[in-house]
Amino acid sequence: MGANISSAHLANCTSRLGALGVVSGVGLRHVVITQIRQGDTAALKIAETFPVRSYYEELLSYAPGGAKADRAIPVDVPDSEKARTPRRLSAICAYIEVMRARQGHNGVIGINVMWKLAVTALPTIYGAMLAGVDALLCGAGVPMELPDIIQKMRAGEDLEYVPLTGTGTNAAMQISEDRTAELLQARQAPWMMPILSNFAFCKRLLDTWKTKYDTEPTAFILENHAAGGHNAPPRNHHEFAEADDLTSYFDKVLALGRPVFVAGDFPEGGTSEDLAHWRARGAQGIQVGSRFALSGDSGMRADLREKVIAANQQGELVVGTDMRMSPTGYPLKFASIPNTLSEPEVKSSQRHVCNLGYLVKSGTQKLPDGTEKEVLVCPAMPTDQYTKLGGEPEDQDGRICLCNALLATAGYNAPSEPALVTLGESGRQVKELLTARQVVEDILGKEQVALNEAALATN
Ligand SMILES: Cc1cc2nc3c(=O)[nH]c(=O)nc-3n(C[C@H](O)[C@H](O)[C@H](O)COP(=O)(O)O)c2cc1C
């Protein structure tokens, strides 16, 4: 859960108890460098173990005492030379996050890579693999090139996708000089777990991977439209109907023969009953989000979490879906909380901005001399900038800068920046503050958790 809701701390708490703890790959360059600038010396100690020294030195220059300590954290740019710095910083930040999640136990750790964040997808995967991540969970798009990416990284080859399928964004990363192939080959390749929301994409992805790469997904994660954050668009483009319900395509996906995990379809909110229900139908397990987001161990700002729980205690929490707000174009599910972007007045007062640049898309700008130039655009940009870069003003209607909003929700933005609490419908069932351990115990059972913890402990 991005950004930093599924923090390294939360993933560490759940993984050591036998769950697959997943860190969010969203915005890690800003999250981790901000933490370092706020005095997180433990993160720097981990960074020092990064296998390529120059990445560490680059990070150090943005840390307190470094030559660029006062400069803004770099953002992605189209120029491939200049893009090296933000890419390398994203990679080492992903490395730090995964290493922190892995500390002190032998449980399994995954990282979530949002495909729509194509500019950071490759560095995030690279950094996570160098940290020995066990699983790559890829949603918000169809990760067609994932096997190719893993294979090229393990072979130490430079990567370039123009564009990354389905994203409209070019993605590249130069790694051949890093000499990391041997290290990556000595490790097991990570599990590949695409997060999808219909049968057609599962079938197409399976067929493509078999034909092109002679491989298969380790498992499918099927996410229903009641899940928190981004949802796949409804088939009729307007509202969710029966054909969008996970129950209508679950059996067909199961028949493809790969293990299936279910997300966002939990009558009990994500408990052992939900797990038993889906296991009885043939699923391998469930992916629970909202209950963990509202636990005391997530990276969500405590005041926001408290407001959600208080509204639930009064039976008043509204969880809604907005079809326009996200620059990705995907429906976005969030809780209505006073003074956040769920309120129309707060939303309409938000300025157009693009200063973090994680959700940008590749475009082409026509210059006055008739030549063309590659640019990165986001419909949440200031209108002048967006249209100058070739964007259509009507694309901007109703958009918000999700990068700024989500960093605010995790407490990594200026206090004046409005937050947005993305949440699934199951979040309405959370009426008390629990620890992540309590949530895991509710799902796996106390006894099982105790056995897992003992088996996975390293000290
Ligand atoms: C606060 C929040 C943020 C989320 N962010 C992401 C994300 O960045 N990437 C993603 O693939 N899924 C994201 N999700 C979806 C979860 O990974 C998960 O599939 C979903 O929450 C499961 O359903 P539940 O919310 O009913 O437990 C998010 C969910 C929540 C509640």
Overview of this protein structure:
By secondary structure, the protein is an alpha/beta fold. The chain has a single domain, classed as TIM Barrel (Alpha-Beta Barrel). It is 37% helix and 14% strand. It is built from 18 helices and 14 strands. The strands form 4 sheets. The protein has a 7-stranded parallel beta sheet with strand order 1-2-3-6-7-9-10. The chain has a 3-stranded antiparallel beta sheet with strand order 8-12-11, with no helix packed on it. Helix 1 runs parallel beside helix 5, helix 2 packs across helix 5 and helix 3 packs across helix 5. The protein is globular and about 65 Å long. The two termini are 29 Å apart. Bound molecules: flavin mononucleotide (FMN). Flavin mononucleotide (FMN) binds next to strand 2 and helix 12. The site of flavin mononucleotide has 27 residues, from strand 2 and helix 12.
Summarize the structure.
The protein is α/β, with parallel strands linked by helices and 459 residues long. The protein contains 18 helices and 14 strands.
Largest sheet, order of strands side by side?
1-2-3-6-7-9-10
The total count of strands amounts to 14
Bound molecule kinds, no repeats: flavin mononucleotide
The shape, in one word, is globular
CATH class: Alpha Beta
Distance between the termini: 29 Å
Find the CATH topology. Answer: TIM Barrel
The stretches of 5 or more residues where confidence is low (pLDDT under 50) are: none
Q: Main sheet?
A: 7 strands, parallel
Structural class: alpha/beta
Mean pLDDT: 96
Strand content: 5-15%
Number of helices: 18
Tell me the Rg in angstroms. 21 Å
